## 1
Amino acid sequence: PVLPKRISKRDGRVLLQREWNPQKKKAIWTKTYQHSIADSDEEDLSVFSEWENTLIKRAYEDDVTSCFQLVEQSFKASSIRSGDLPQRKRRSEMRTEDAGADLYTWALMKPWANGSRQAHPFVQQRHYLKLARGILQALFSFHEKGFIHCDFHPGNIVLPARFTPLEPIEGVGERVKIEPLWEKVCIIDLDCSVSEKIEPFSTFPLNPFDEADGPSPRMSEHLRRRLLVMDDWLKAKGQTRRYDRKFWSKQKPNPLKSFMTLDWREDLYQLGYWLGQIRDGSPDGTWGGAACVDTTGGPKGGNIFIGTFAEELMQWGGPEQIDWDSNSLTNRIIAPPESPHIDYISRIDALLRHLPAHSNEDSFVLRRRDHDDAYALQVAIKQTPINRQKE
């Protein structure tokens, strides 16, 4: 299957476009923020483009290998008209290299592996463990240089792959072999990220509550407390959440500095939450229903690890890790000087060595019949008894 040369999707004022760049001979993503002066200052999201650009450049300078590559960024202003009133419209645009498919895209795949249909691409123990290992390796590169993502979810985790066309099969159609590049997991979308070296320009549009106004289960107490305190601080000043840089530059002392004390525990907590969703199946069915990853079919040690690892990671955001200091807006309990990433990776490597190996263990096959509804319908009609008799 060939991806279309151009893909567009919009999320509010943010427009994402993917297109092939013939000069660079690779796909490029363009993220565009648009803001009109008719909008209130606190809703000017263009500051996140500037912030993300700053972090990506710093990550590149610091040799963070798991971060995607910035191509270019531009800020433009153009005149528009709304009725009889002229307005100014700011437009910030950032272009980055396409690092591959995010995990939500992988969840949409209907793959075959070892001769059987998979509930989702990571249902096999070996694949689940290799995915966890690849993400931990990417986070280690990120955290080692003092960057914390804060908005870590499957849409911001990219797993690239190698594609090899296979011979078509009658009734099945075109097929393609997909080999995940587990060691090249990439972290994207840094507009809500922080660095221990760079003071934030603005507070972040992260909501510490879910749609039911309860605490968001994917956000640790480390981050939730900072966001709630920041909102209370703004409320005391008669403000709502502000995103404009000028407002925050005037605050002395600037409470945004508290975000610079976040550490790797936040991202490991969020990783644990999502690994649990992938392992067990999320309520919305994204990962194929309950009990996706088998925790009984492998060696005992592997079964126990897969069944408990997500919860182990989430303990980094548990109450025993919190001692909140309301004066400095920071956590008195400091993260251990040695992060556990490498230890986790070593444990996974030991488990992988004891898992039974299969041929094509690191590849999937996608078939046209499973992804092209029109083609599948044609095959079904052709295979009805009446049409078979006609043939």
## 2
Amino acid sequence: MLTEFDTNNTSYAWNLPFGFHARFGGPALALDDPDVRNRWLRSSAHAPELWVMPKQQHGAVVLTDFSINNRLENFSDGFATSNTDIGLGVFGSDCPAIALLTPCGFGIVHCGWRGFAGGVVDNLTTAVSSVSSLKPSEMSAFIGPGICRRCYEVDTAVINSCQWPASSFSPLRNGHSHLDLAEAIQQRLLALGVTRVVKSDVCTAHAQNLHSRRHQGPGIVQVFALHYSLGRLRS
């Protein structure tokens, strides 16, 4: 699962299990423009023409029944489907995306600390199981770019929001901690029975070509895109 980086387009790409392909596009691509974004989503080899992205809520809702269009009208933080003729995407800066894959269904969510505390990892696993009729042990997961432990300091409101895996925290002074969201996600997936989990290990605060909301403020659009890539011919 080699990470490929395109220096011209400031995007990362991964070939994932079961014939899926993922990309993460940075700020130089100007993905805030819907027309530019839709062209970028369709530009990789074997990419579908139709893509669905959510109107993100920073919550835990994962839809299996959703409107298939590119108008951002599905209020959720992710989707699961057995329809490999469409691609799925989420917006992301410091909050990583999770891709959950099977031979007959897949899903994606945006997972910040609020979503994790609300159960979005569990909800994604349940949704993918529902559309694929497979158990978590038959799934593979990929955790996309996000802020790393060293760059993400949180306070007691975050610390007390849920039962975090112990390995995801590094305590600091005065009740603050460094939080490793990718580690927390991985440990939760393992607890749910998903044994094949890979992290991208790309930090949005360290990578000069990417944007960190925590360190640089809001206003930049980045996209994690996921689609089935085998056996589809572009027309």
